[in-house]
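__Protein archive entry__

___
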Amino acid sequence: PAVQALVATDCSTTEELRCSEREFATAMGLSLMEGKDFSILFIFDTRGTTKLEAGLNILQTIFICLAVGIGSMLFTHDANQLLLNPIERMMAKMEAIKDNPLYAMKLGDIEFRREEIKQAKLQDQLARMNRCVRWLYTTYNANKAKEPMETMILEKTIIKLGGLLALGFGEAGAEIIGQNMRGGHSAGVNAMVAGRKVDVIIAFCSIRNFTDATETLKEEVMQFVNQIGEIVHGCVDDYMGAPNKNIGDCFLLVWRLSGIAPDKQKKLADMAMMSIVRMIAEVNKSRKLAVYREHPGLLQRVRKYRVKLGFGLHCGWAIEGAIGSEFKIDASYLSPNVNVASRLEAATKQFGVLTLISHFMVRLCSPELGVNCRLIDQVTVKGSKQPIRLYTIDLDHMQLKVSPKKTLAMRNRFKLRQLREAQRNEKWSDDYFLAKVFAADADIINMRAAFAPEFFLRFSMAFRNYEAGEWRVARDMFYTCHYCPEKSMEYPTNVEEEDWPVDGPTRTLLTFMRKTHYHPPSQWPGHRELTEK
């Protein structure tokens, strides 16, 4: 019900209307006298307008919230894509390098794979577009600037630096990188990390006639060494090893045994032997290296020149760590066993063979592969307290022909590395038997075809007599150790040196025995001192 207003300013005219839902108006056309007698007050119900304003205010608030929300989402998306996600990826990569420095070599492969997937998705999207939309899309993106973001540049730089660290320091320097990466409280570098004792297989590889090659090739000798290094390092990596040092004409190659189960250590030893055999085959089949056989300067210095490698293979403990000072360090291995491997390689020239393998190494490998090694001598070398029985793998590298055609190299090095990793994993599996691969490999069959079974039997019998001190009997047996059986039917007792067998170990032992007129020294221990350093 209507209530009479007492004054013009009162707003309570009905219990149903709030003050904000009404408007007041009064007549302004009354005279002064009329205004004293009575007044007119008009009250208007504005609930409709108020509701409309409230609704509009709500819509305005919702719009502002949506605008702010969408804007913050877009800003957050850009911040995540351009800043936060790259920083998180960089931190994850740094953590991965810190935990396993050698993992840095794989970061480039992972990054490449990520970009490959992104590119494949883009190609799939373009294939689904019609021709007009595809043209507009490609035109728009072609006109856009291709400048990479700073965070992307920084992320790729970390990947490259990590890869270079792993490539430069290698497996021996993993601990140096790891300890310095873990020391995040300081920006200082402590490269002189204490070494640690590890069990390793050590191979020392040397390029024959390197002095002649250096003086002849001059500036081209760097390319010459790198072409050989590509084969040597590739074969080592294929068979689970790691190149450690490149010392001019020599390569130090390592297979780590520490932390590996005994049965896998045996397989790793087989891989080391197989790796050396593959190096010999690949060097002699290489079309790049075959060019040097016709080099006039090399042929003038060395008759019938061809690239040839010598190998010394040994196993034992070594200290792994940094060698040098704060100005320059090398991550490598120090041990008498490393020196033994080096001396074995140097002695290959004396024995006229490509490989010399210690009996420690032969014992470590599987018996199925070890039977392919021939015992040729027992010696003492500087750096070893006990005599070492020397073995070799008989290979006639002259039987191999250069690859008939140039194989097309895979240009994408990341795909090539992925393929190599898959092949490495296959070789490391329990179903892969290296002894069977050795027996079935066509190159190895060709290189061993010249050695008749009778030759090995005769040499073994002669060596046992030599070791037992029966040097005259050994001499007569060594005279018959020709590679071809038909040349071994006679048993001569006095043969001139030019008629001796061409086998290097045979000639070496005959030369040694001849110094004392084929009479062993008194108290002959069954071994001699290796004079070759």
